[in-house]
Every structure is written in C-alpha cells, then in structure tokens.
Amino acid sequence: MRIDFYHLAKNNLDTELPFIMEGLYAEKKRVLIRTDSPERTDYISNLLWTYNSDKWLPHGTKKDGRTQKQPIFITEGTDNPNNATVLAIISGEELDFTAPENKDFEHILIIFSAHDVTARDNARKLWLTAKEKGYELYYINR
Known about the structure:
The chain has 142 residues and is α/β, with parallel strands linked by helices. The chain is built from three helices and six strands, in the order βαβαβββαβ.
C-alpha cells in the first residue's frame, strides 16, 4: 500500500484538494474522500463544484445518488460505495490501516494542515505506524 502525507504548510485544503483530485481523475483513479461530518461533506462537494469556473471535476455524495458511478465520492461514512482504490483522509483523524474498511485501498492520502496541531500529531503517529508496517511512504510539503 502506498501512503502519501500531504503537509499543508503554505497552501490550504481549499487550494490543494481540487489540484490533487484533478490529478487522480486524469489518471482514471476512483477516489473516496472521507470527512468527519455531513456538513464537511457538503462543504467539500461544493468546493469541488466551484473551485474553478473553467473546470469540471465529476464527483458526488449520498445526496446525489448513483454512488457506484461516481469517480470521486465524498462521505463521512466508512463504506466504499464507488469501489475506490484511493482513500483521501482530510479531517485529521487517526486511521487504522488494517481495519476492514481501509485494507483494500491501494493508495491512501493523509492531507493535513500544519496549523492544526491535532491533525499534525495524528499524521506523525500514522507515519510511524505505517513505517513499522512497511508501507510505501511519501511526504509532500505544500
């Protein structure tokens, strides 16, 4: 499993997440973005619709339906209704890589703000755990 740690020191999530998702969509990757609340899910969905008036990034939530057809699916749940191979964690929570809902992903993105102490500390713990388990790790400072 590959795990990318995006440390947002200069840029913020609103700038970086669409950029990251554009790249994955161009590679035809199916992505699950996991949030920490329905409100955050709605916010991220709105962000991906409005971040650039010249681009369109197809995605959906449970409210939109057709979950299996969404190339990028945003949810606060632990299910994987669009059969994504990439999981993006954006809320700074801890993550058990071996939990049944996480073990089938080929690629995990841990995206965290340098200004959120809890998220930064959780990312450090995740890095150490992932390193111990022998996962392929990448650190991206944005």
